[in-house]
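Minimal example, chain plus thymidine-5'-phosphate.
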Amino acid sequence: MNNQSRGFMIALEGVDGSGKSGLARQLAETLRGDGHSVLATHEPGGTEAGTALRKLVLASNAYDWTPTAELLLMNASRRQHIDKVILPALAAGQIVICDRFVGSTIAYQGAGRGLADRTILDLHRLAIEDFWPDLTLVLDIDPETALNRSKARLESAKIDEGRFEALDLAFHRRVRQSFLDQAATLPAAYRVIDANRPPEIVAREAADHVRRLLVGEGAR
Ligand code: TMP
């Protein structure tokens, strides 16, 4: 399944606490200011069913999912999201900004949990019909700083989604490395942004890059 619509899909990726959610808001505002119609969404979630799955997977007292079961749940949430939200938005010519997508599955269930890339990509082909974002922005940051930030945010906002944050630093280092490896393998579709800098600098770099690509895509 290719994105043959007039729309454009941007996935935001990075370790927990890398600043994706803030960037999603900022980027959506900037692109709307440029006159685009923008849909901001996230995974796991983005639909009612996906939100229910998100709770099942991310709550600190979630079931003890095996890595493969976790992979299937992420794909179930994604398929629902694609069919109900993402494809209709792209067909209507919108820019879709998605906080996490298949890059997170490769990083968390692959590098983090230890499933083979082959398994993840085969399932992606089968369940998601090999649909990829037009652009994946990776917010690259020191995992220790980011993890502490994420834990503090969940605690202060009393959000019970800390199942991955509870895993050790080595897990999060593997996740970070996977995002860098993905970007090195697919340089045309990924862009790594140094997120150790102030959020407004990160947002400006992201917006500049997206604007350049949208000019190139003008004919679509
Ligand atoms: P978030 O807090 O950035 O919304 O992400 C939720 C968590 O879900 C995060 O710890 C990463 C995890 N996740 C996966 O493990 N696999 C996936 O495919 C996705 C989309 C998220």
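Residues 16, 20, 42-44, 58, 74, 99-100, 104-105, 108-109, 161, 164 surround thymidine-5'-phosphate (CB under 6 Å). Residues 41 and 98 are 5 Å apart (CA to CA).
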